[in-house]
Amino acid sequence: MSTAHIECNAVTKRYGRATILENISLGISKGEFVSLIGPSGCGKSTLLKSISGLASLTSGKITIDGKSPRRARKQMSFIFQDATLLPWRTVESNIALGLELDGVARKEREEKIKELLSLVGLDHVTKSYPRELSGGMKMRVSIARALASRPEVLLMDEPFAALDEITRDRMNEELLRLREEHRWTAVFVTHSVAEAVFLSNRIIVLSAHPGRIACDLKVPLAYPRTNETRTSNEFESLVSQVSHALREGTSVDTEKAEL
Cα-flanking dihedrals φ and ψ of residue 179, to 5°? Predict the structure, then answer.
């Protein structure tokens, strides 16, 4: 019996005659941070949505703790590329939305929101509306809202793609700080090799047309990771390896690599 937290077994997805994903088999352990990377159209987001239960499969199976994505939905939270905040709600009421839908009592809801606002450093903008926030602040609200349900699995689809490089790097560091406190299992879609290397325990490179696993690469960098991590020889070597795998669509032997 598998001990994987998330298990994809021979996952295939077709839209009409087009095969988007083909025979994806992948196990993700509890607490791992796994990034999915690959060329545009390789099915990264489709795989993420399939894990969440937002997309159906043509064939194959996905389980979370042995349950179907639909049955495990309350264990998961999804962060999209757009912060998807409701413009007529304040920061605190946007974070409260999921708690309200779950019927959490007002006092408990207020306590959780206060804790989350402190966690993501937004105590000073609780009554602000999305239009009054920067891009990075909006993503912090989105992350806080996702964490409100205390998920075991956090699924993220290029959440920082629209941010400038400095803000993106800062948000990456913030995300890892939150992970240290909450220890969820993370699956993260990105087009950025450097971002994938900085965040992950493991990187899955998908080939294009159809999406298959071309490379399953472990990232042997110690946590916590800081800005100094990005300037290390080990980091630069890993970025080079993943970039090569991405270009060639073939696997690399990280055991023989000189880090």
Answer: -60, -40
Q: How far apart are CA 90 and CA 111, in angstroms?
A: 16
d(CA 27, CA 252): 19
Whole-Å CA distances, 27 to 125, 223, 225:
40, 22, 24
Rounded to the nearest angstrom, the gap between the alpha carbon of residue 38 and the centroid of all alpha carbons in its chain is 15
Q: Which domains does the chain have, with CATH numbers?
A: 6-248 (3.40.50.300)
Q: Can you read off the two tokens belonging to residue 240?
A: 């080079």
What SS3 state is found at 208? coil
Q: What Å distances lie between residue 51 and 55, 101, 179, CA to CA?
A: 8, 22, 20
Q: For residue 19, which of 48, 40, 42 has the smallest C-alpha distance?
A: 42
DSSP 5-47: SEEEEEEEEEETTEEEEEEEEEEE-TT-EEEEE-STTSSHHHH
pLDDT digits (tens, 9 = 90+) for 178-187: 898 888 999 9
Mean of the per-residue pLDDT values for the chain?
A: 89
Encode pLDDT of 232-248 as tens digits.
999 999 999 999 988 87
